[in-house]
């Protein structure tokens, strides 16, 4: 069984690698067309190109998830640990994702608890690229699974200042107790997701959990039930 799993991981890695490059090119040219790099286009053509851009983006994300799975299972996931300013990362991602949320007609807010002195530092030791992947994945999930309403992000510290906590709350489809128990497992998705968002591998949260585990942190979800929104939390060690 271990040999078979290894062969499957190798196949996923090779197949994903060869699929990602042409899809990235498709996404890139679609973006250039929509921006007018090759001349003016009619509205119907622009709408079709936008659909190509969005769909190719979903596929690139799915392929990246498959590649991450193969790296995690083979032990080849590399990490570059150094000081990471989580406040800076938080604000950059908030700015990047706000447009996507507003495009989906959602109210989007991002707040940093500055502390009593209004200059609270949020530095942890970690891999900045991997932590960015975790946070952006959580934001992207909330946008996908929130048909209407709002999404709010918050960065704060535990009372003893030893932990940095990122929280993300939405007014989306929510989760049952059963769903909360399984969403961080491979190929698991929330019940009823197919009615809202048909793409996705059910791998993103599993990858996020594995990355956070390597940072000796915690990631978890809370919800008052289906139809009552969800909240996700990531807790990391604070260097200062």
Structural class: alpha+beta
Task: Briefly note the CATH topology name of the largest domain.
Answer: Heat Shock Protein 90
CATH class group of the largest domain: Alpha Beta
Q: So what's the oligomer here? A: single chain
Please give the order of strands in the largest beta sheet: 2-4-5-7-6
Characterize the main sheet.
5 strands, mixed
Q: Count of helices?
A: 7
The percent of residues in helical segments reads: 40-55%
Spatial gap, N to C terminus = 45 Å
What's the domain count?
2
Radius of gyration from CA coordinates: 19 Å
Strand content: 15-25%
CATH architecture of the largest domain: 2-Layer Sandwich
Determine the CATH superfamily of the largest domain: Histidine kinase-like ATPase, C-terminal domain
E-strand count: 7
Order of helices and strands: HHEHEEHEEHHHEE
Residue-averaged pLDDT: 85
Approximate shape = globular
Low-confidence stretches: 194-198
How would you characterize this protein structure?
- This protein has helices spanning 2-34, 43-74, 86-103, 128-144, 177-182, 193-196, 204-214, and strands spanning 82-85, 106-112, 123-126, 149-157, 163-170, 218-222, 231-237.
- It is of the alpha+beta class and 240 residues long.
- The chain has two domains: 2-74, Orthogonal Bundle (Helix Hairpins); 82-237, Histidine kinase-like ATPase, C-terminal domain (Heat Shock Protein 90, 2-Layer Sandwich).
- The strands form two sheets. It has a five-stranded mixed β-sheet with strand order 2-4-5-7-6. It has a two-stranded antiparallel sheet with strand order 1-3.
- A hairpin with a 5-residue loop joins strand 4 and strand 5 (163-170).
- Helix 4 (128-144) packs antiparallel against helix 7.
- The protein is globular, with a radius of gyration of 19 Å.
- Residues 194-198 have low confidence and may be disordered.
